[in-house]
Amino acid sequence: MFKHVRPALAALVTMTALTGILYPLSVTALAQLAFDEQANGSLVRDESGRVRGSWLLAQPVEGAQWFHPRPSAVDYATVASGASNLAPSNPVLFEQVRQNAADWAGTRGKPVPLELVTTSGSGLDPHLSLEAALFQAERIAAARGIPSQRLVALVRVHAQRPWIGPTVVNVLALNLALAENPAPDFAERN
């Protein structure tokens, strides 16, 4: 019996060392060398070195003077990320969407973009469509007392066009640009 157990234990220890220790350490070392910023979470730091957020994760935003990300079913918690899992026929989902639409004060002439009233699959999407970001420009301009054309220009400057999919805007990038220059004048860049 021991002649069968010993090779099995040796294989277990060997594979544990290879796949549980050596492989993760080598992948981590390679990632730190080749992709330092991404391997460390694509963190955004201010001048004092304090972490302000991540380019990869949405975070809650309060106040009419800031761009807001999509709603989150998990309150932007990274550990418990996920969707609400409510079916389209669920009355709770219908009420949440109706309340979110009412909060955004959309009209027939200017309906609220769908992504501002529905949660995403992860609850952590850092990007909005260009349409959803532009929808917020008027509210932010009124809260900051600046022309909405300046915010439209800011949104267009920060627009990212991926290879596949619609044009998107990183909400953190927009808000950091607003924090750095409370009355931005981006009209001359376009």
UniProtKB/TrEMBL annotation:
Membrane association type: Single-pass membrane protein
Location within or outside the cell: Cell membrane
Pfam families referenced in this protein's UniProt entry, alphabetically: KdpC
Keywords, ordered alphabetically: ATP-binding, Cell membrane, Ion transport, Membrane, Nucleotide-binding, Potassium, Potassium transport, Transmembrane, Transmembrane helix, Transport
Keyword Nucleotide-binding: yes
GO cellular component, as recorded: plasma membrane
InterPro entries reported in the protein's UniProt record: KdpC (IPR003820)
Record GO terms (molecular function): ATP binding; P-type potassium transmembrane transporter activity
Function in brief: Part of the high-affinity ATP-driven potassium transport (or Kdp) system, which catalyzes the hydrolysis of ATP coupled with the electrogenic transport of potassium into the cytoplasm. This subunit acts as a catalytic chaperone that increases the ATP-binding affinity of the ATP-hydrolyzing subunit KdpB by the formation of a transient KdpB/KdpC/ATP ternary complex.
Family under the similarity heading: Belongs to the KdpC family.
Quaternary state and interactors: The system is composed of three essential subunits: KdpA, KdpB and KdpC.
Protein's recorded name: Potassium-transporting ATPase KdpC subunit
Native source species: Stutzerimonas marianensis
Gene that produces this protein: kdpC
